User: Fold these one by one.
Assistant:
Number 1:
Amino acid sequence: MSQGEAAGRGTAKPQDQGWAWMVLLAAVVLQGLTLGFPCCIGIFFTDLQHEFQASNSETSWFPSIMVAVLHGGGPLCSILVKRFGCRFVVMLGGLLSGLGMVSSSFCKSISQLYLTAGLITGLGSCFSFQAGVTVLGYYFVRWRTLANAVASTGVSLGFTLWPLLSQFLLDEMGWRNTFLIFGGILLNCCVCGAIMRPIQLASGSLPQSAKPEEEPGSRAEEAQLSNGASPHHPTLQQHTKRTKCFQVLQKYLAFDIFCQNKGYQIYTIGVTWMMMGFALPHVYLVPYAIHNGVEERKAALLISIIGFINIFIRPLTGLLSGHRVFTGRRIYLFSLAVLLCGLSNFICVISAEFSVLILYCVILSIAMSGVGALTFQVLMDVVEMDRFSSALGLFTILESTTLLIGPPLTGLLVDITSDFHYVFYTSSFFLISAALFMGLSFCALEKKNKLREASKAHLDNPSRYQYSEMSTEPKAVSQSPPAVEYITSI
């Protein structure tokens, strides 16, 4: 059953009111359960190392796989949403997340954790999160921006509560029983999905959007048939399969936009490079603090401080960036936030005292709020909305690749040097270089576009004057009105 069929079975409900606010509440909880969950994994880092006798690099693969799959599973989630609907995909994600964490509590090796907690839980979180965000677009029209901003506060709540709960359960019953309880908590994604009832869409909206995607394949098939080829001919079948594969790739992975749109190209490369260092503090901050003598409970509190400040700063950042003054300039705010993230890492290098680490968390949280609030908003600024979903697919897959390899490579560096300072040096290098690359590249692109527009405007005026002169010529000379009409009609 497709999304359109699923939606059609639902009753027509008024948007932006009534049950829509219950769906928004479910989306807040959903984002706290999914996006907020990986932040607590660093609390178990030392225990998992001792349990499995693993190195920093081997242990860091576990959260890296989880976060990479969480971000990179978007295209697969989009396919499932179109086929089965948002409600089903959210509940499927909750089931996978719970199953993955329950299975993790019985793991006998660190490699088994890669499959259970990393792949299965990460994929389930991806399904629940992205389908939950999608359903908000059906329930909210007028208040859609507000709804997305409110839903994103769930991430901050998750960042605040998950570390505190994790440290409490770890002290009381160990990591295995804690993972078992986490499996039960993540099953609540199914409850959130049950609240997200299908809503009736505008009649014919989905079939119309599907027609252009089917036309190239049907036209190719008609061309082959007109040449006498049988519809079951092997050559025709192979050609049709290739055409359909190309359509799927173009829909969910916008390589054509990447090649043609310079703004999207710069932004995607910059964010992909940035993600090599962005997740490192989340993975290594707690082990770094414990390694330098900070009590485990206080070390876990550091992540909660980041999340607590995010609750208040992220909505303010979203409101500020939405002001018309920043229209077309949000990329510079984003670059500034990334730059601040990179510079803040040097605080940890100076000292590992608890008071200094609190200062670091405050500054990092403010910068992270800007990055989190602007990441997708900037993407909407550089890509047309009718191709946003496909641009988002390529964007998330590329950034998930660097999210996957960043922490393990840094962990290998720490294993070789036995110095946690290299975590923050590495993070600062990637963040600062990415911020400078994006800011300077967009500045140069903006200047180039202004020069192009100025030269185009300069050339347009003479051409218009020449056209007016030609229109005063005798009728005998200009005998091509059909051609003129044809050109203007195109």
Number 2:
Amino acid sequence: PYYVDMDQNLFLQASLHSSDQNLTVFVDTCVASPNSSDFRALVYELTKSGCASDPTYTPFPSPRHDVARFGFNAFSFVNRFPSVFLRCELVVCSYQDYSSRCYQGCVSRFKRSADS
């Protein structure tokens, strides 16, 4: 566990450990939950499809392409839960494959209206 005060800035880093130097990593989706085994019932989205959902979520530049860095302000779930757990989905792509998901950034999907 990592103990922080409310609204304290948290900084996280995800590193890809591979002998293949031609890979890069991208943070696609991160959600928080008060339950470490249930990330569906009560969740808070920090980022989804590479788009920040939380106004304090910030991606940071990294010195290496196999490292992703980001941060956000600490929060709680209505003071009823003593802990917050994170689950992040990362995408691994070929380095400098600019058509890959890693280089697309925020991908917002729009719903189309159905005609009668």
Number 3:
Amino acid sequence: PSAQQVLKQVRLLLAEGPGVVRELGALIEAAECRWLLADVSPAVLGELAAALDGYAAPPRQEQETADLPGKDSAYAATAERAADVGSVFLHLLAKLEAAKIQEALGVPVVGPILSQVMGPIYVFAATHIVERPWTNARTQSVAHEVLATLVRAAGCESVAEFLRGRNDDEEGRFAAVLGLLKQELTKDSWKCNPATKFVFSWTLTQVTRPWLSRYLERVVPPSLLMSDDYREENKILGVRCLHHIVLNVPAADLCQFNRAQVVYHALYNHLYSREAPLIQVGFTVSPNQAVLLCLLDLLPILERAQRQQAQPRPTAPWDEVLQLVLTHMEAEHRLALRRVYARSLPAFVQRLGIQIARHLKRLERVTVSYLEVCDGPEEEARLGILETLECTIEHAWPRMPCRVPVLVWALLKMIWDVHTDQGSTPEPVKAALLQRATKCLILLDRCSEGRVKDLLEGVHSSCEENCVRECIREVREHT
């Protein structure tokens, strides 16, 4: 029989079990390139690759399933199937590479076949390339090998080049991959295949500027869909995707059709979340996937758009976000969230500059409150607040003299608490706290024309602790 007849029959028999897949791999490995590829329609091989990818996919689940199951027998069976399918793909790609060299077949035949099978093979590799409940060490290794072979067969040097194209004139395979994922990324179906969202997010992060902007209409809706989900894991994944889009799409394209405002409102709603991982980090890749830091990258784009539209400054999103953050900070008692908020504040102060004066009353209350509480060995919240206070004094110094008594009292109390702390705080952390507190006192003294020195006179004469006296002495002697 012809190869086309055999491959069509095999596609219909895939559901019968792993034996068919293994025999298919042995057949492709032993077949001659001429018999396997010359008389086969590229569409037939594309359908076979898609069927193999579906055969190796994790089991579908109901949309409202709360959590992915653990590594149960169903996922163990998925890993076994994926290893067999990966072997078939490796044999097929090896034949395609060998066919390129043979003049009898040539690239005109191999090219159309590659264009048909690349999408399903890539989706298979992206599904199994990282650790998931349905993968194991063997399937991850096979997926890495399949992806490397696919990229090489396409004549590319990296996955990013494979997706975006080798030059500006050549369209990559990103559009084809999105086309395969499109039916799985609708509102009603995106939760049915547990791998689809990971394949989409992993693929999206491989495509950067300037190539990503041409696919903007196709990547924003799925990202917003995941971001708006009720499960924290999906929210974090959506925020990661949105942040990548913000960083890699020109501002003009983001503002077109009001896309930037849509993304802003989606992120702003996450500020009401009480979960630190969502506010702070998208998985363990980088803190840049944080909701707050994502907003920090998006807000300048919105501000420029408002200036171009001649909108009044009081409606700026910067003030809206900072006001909400300070409101949450003032009432927050969980240390994890206090650390997240405190680390993000300096960036807001730096960006607002003198306009931080609009928020000084609430910021003062937050500063005093956070300086009072020890938040563990690393003291991240206190260090973040001290950095925020330092930036605030530098930018809004004309408005600081009236706040000197309250802030000096809070700083001295913190210095005393740090000095007398007998807990697990390392000495370098204590030294950093004392150094930053001292610098804040010096800055307050500068902007109040020596008023801090006057307030510290009595304290220096009555204090007997050398550490505290040293901090006060440094402030008094600074000119």
Number 4:
Amino acid sequence: QRVFSEEMECRWSLLLLLLLGSSALAKPGARSGDEECQQNVNCFLPDCLCASTENPGNLPLDQLPQFVVLTFDDAVTPTNYEFYLTFKDFLNPNYCRISMTFFVTHLYNYYDMVNELHRLGHEIALHSVTHKDDVDNYWRVANQSVWEHEMADLKTMLETYARIPAEDIKGWRAPFLEVGGDEMFSAITDLGLQYDCTWPTLHYTNWFDTEPLGALWPYTLDFPSIQDCQLGRCPTQIYEGTWVMPMVDLEDNTGQPCAMLDACNSLENELLVDPDAVESFLRRNFEYNYNSTKAPFGLYVHHSWFYEGGNSTDARRVGYTRFLEYLSKLEDVYVVSVDRLLAWVKNPVPLDDIDSIDEFGCYEPESNCVDTKIFKFTTENNLPVEVDAIYMGSCTLVQPKYYPWIYNPLGDQNITDV
């Protein structure tokens, strides 16, 4: 009996050692796919936040800032640059400038103008090099390598031609909101980016259905997401420390959801011709959050939306501007870029203490893009599209030999077809 017991004890000891060894070799933080995220139990700020409709600091509503996030997609050009500058005099309650996020693409981009937007306090984020319009045959089937080059090569261009510090480039949005599944999120994580802002949600809003679930706050992918998947392929794996900024759907004037303003419809064209209707539409959607949970409210748009219909109307510009003027009168509303919102989410302080977060301070550094150049690239420079010439503004003085493009961000390789 004694021999048997000693033998069994030896076997159990060996099994324990094997289990400990396999645990030590496992990926740090690895967990089973069905483990439930529990804040302050197995998920801790500032690195991990469970997906939730509750604010991360459990603050009373009267102590909770209402955040409004404004983003613009695609290249910054002489066509839209002056429009973006019209918002530089809007201030938050702490008398610092509002900040917006620009998800930038490369084609036709003027990097000197991107530099100035960054200097004024706006966030510059990634939206792909190519922005190819073939969703089915390019984005939907893209592997991790394609996603990585669309992100990393644009990041190199922003660092080189716009002189944006690498550490300031934190976010990504996929073209056409085509969520790229685990391939895309693996690329985000491997490149050290902090967040994605591609993923719309209808179920988690403050207006959908007879008993709305409430609008989602940003969260990390340390655990499987609870968010509904509307477009593309949503991730099935976990990505520790990678943030999701949910694109909470708006309700357009026909009662239908729209993730971006460009897709919002109206009953009688009023959102194209009537500035009062535009302002009313924006205020109604804002108040779904402001008068209930005060979850972040996002307005996501392309510059072209403001000029749809040619020169026949500027109702959208006027209505949008009036909406910002309305927000500027509210002492608990902060219009911030995605990265500033996440800075607060990681350290959720009451409204009166918001200036304790460095990212909310006022600053306007000296320009590091004093000498700018406008480069002209022709067909001799391997243009990727069927045009005779492309212009590119830059903070660098020496023009690349070839037009910078995916797999060739510095324009130093004779690549003709990618």
